[in-house]
Amino acid sequence: MFFDRPDSSENAVLVHIRFSRFEEADEIAEFAQLVRSAGVVVDELITGRRREPQPKFFVGQGKLREVGVALESNGAGLVVFNHELSPAQQRNIERELSVRVVTRTQLILDIFSQRARTHEGQLQVELAQLSHAQTRLVRGWTHLDRQKGGIGLRGAGETQRELDQRMLSERIRVLDKRLGSVRRQRQQSRRRRRRASVPTVALVGYTNAGKSSLFNRLTASDLYAQDQMFATLDPTLRKLPLDGFGTAVLADTVGFIRDLPHTLIAAFKATLEEVTEADLLLHVVDASVPDVDERAAQVYGVLEEIGAANRPVLEVYNKIDALDQSPRCDLGSDGSPERVWISAHTGAGVDELLDALARRLGGQRRALKVLLPFSSGRTRSWLYQLGAVLDEQLQEDGRVELTVRVDERAEARLRKVPGVLLQGVRGNHRIPPSPLSRGIS
Question: How large is the angle between the packed helices 211-219 and 350-362, nearest 10 degrees?
Answer without folding.
Answer: 80
